Amino acid sequence: MSQALATLRRIIPTNPPNEIYRNVLLRPGSIEANNGEIRCRIASDYDGSDLCVSARQLHDITQATTSDSLTIEAVSGRANIQAQRGVWKMPTADGELWQHATNQRNHSICNMPADQLASIIQTTIDAADKLAVSNLNAICFDLNDGKLNVVATDGRRLHCSEVDIEQATDDCEVLIPAQAASIVAALANKAGSEFSVQIDRNDSEVVFQIGDPATTIWVRQANGRFPKWRGVVPEKKPNTTIVNAKKLQQAVKQAAICSAEDTKSVAIKWGSTTTISCKSSEYGTSRVDVEPIRCNHDAETKVNPAFCVDWLKHVDGMEPVDVDIAKNGALVFRNETSTAVIMPMEQAA
Asked: What is the distance between the terminal CA atoms of the chain, rounded to a whole angstrom?
C-alpha cells in the first residue's frame, strides 16, 4: 500500500476543486485517487468495505511504521487503522461524492509494451506548453492508417513519436493533459517491458490499463482541437546531415553557458566541422566544435539550446541523428521513431 499511495499522491491536487479529492477511496482489491480530471485505481490487498480516508494521513502512517501491512476497518463512520502497536482512528469522507466510473462504451485505440509507451511520452512531452490553459498543454494521440503518432507542441517546437500498430482499430485523435500523460508514463515505465498497456477511448475519457493486475487510469480528454501538426513536419530527405546525439547534446550545452537570459539562443553553423557558438554582453562568448558523421549542409541557424537538449537527451548516447534545415529555417532532428522540429529564433547573421 505504501508504494501505491506514493504513486497516487501525484494525482491529489494541492487546491482541489472538491474537498473529497484530498482523500483516497479504498475498495476491496484496490485503492483509488481522483482530482476531477484524472482518476487512478491501483490493485491492493485491502479486503474491507468501501472507505474514503485522508490520503495524506494514510501515507504518513505507512511511512511512520515499519510494518509490512495495515489492518483497516470501518467502525461507526470512522476508519480504525492498526500497524504494529499503533492505532489510529480517522474520520472518513462521504464516498457518494466520489466521481465513479462512467458506463460509457470504450473503443480500443491500441495495445503496446509498457516501456514503449513510457518512452514515446517521455520523448514527446517536453514540447507541451506547461503554462498554457489550452490544447497546447496536452499530448495528442493520433491513430491513422495503422500508425500511432504521439505529438506535443508549444508553438515554438514540436515533438512527434511514431509507432506501428498491429491491431485493427479505427482512426482517431484524442488529447490528454500533459500532467496526466506524465503520470501515465511514470506508471508505464515502472511496469517495464514485461507488461503491456491497453489504451481505450470513449466520448469523454482516455483509459489506460497498465500491467497485471491492471493499474487503470481514466483521463478526461482535453478540450479543443490540436493544431494541424502534419504540415509542420517536413518530409525526410535523402543524404541529410548525420550527427552523434550525445556529442551534439554536449556541445550545445557547453556553448549555451554564455547565452543571455533574455535571448537564450545559440548559433549552429553546419559544415564538415560544425560550430555551436554564443555571444552576449553579459556572459561573454563561447564556441564548441563537433565533427558530424556526415554533413550535407552549409547553413547557419539560431535556436533555443534548451529545445535541442530536451529532445536529444532521450536519444541513446551513441545513436546517430538525422539533421535537416526546413524551408522556413526550422531545425529538424530525426531518429528511427521520433522527430523534433525547432523553430529558429531569428536568422543568424
From this structure: 59
pLDDT beyond 80 at 276: yes
> Burial code of 306-343, b = ≥16 C-beta within 10 A, e = fewer?
ebbbbbbebbeeeebbbbbbbeebbbbbbbeebbbbbb
Share the mean pLDDT of the chain. 90
Sheet strands (E) in 97-156? 107-113, 138-144, 147-153
Asked if the model's pLDDT at residue 271 lies above 50, the reply is: yes
The model's pTM: 0.88
Q: Rounded to whole angstroms, how far apart are CA atoms 67 and 164?
A: 46
| The dihedral sign for the CA sequence 220, 142, 158, 193 | positive
Domains of the chain: 2-97 (3.10.150.10), 108-220 (3.10.150.10), 241-342 (3.10.150.10)
51-54/71-75 β-pairing: unpaired
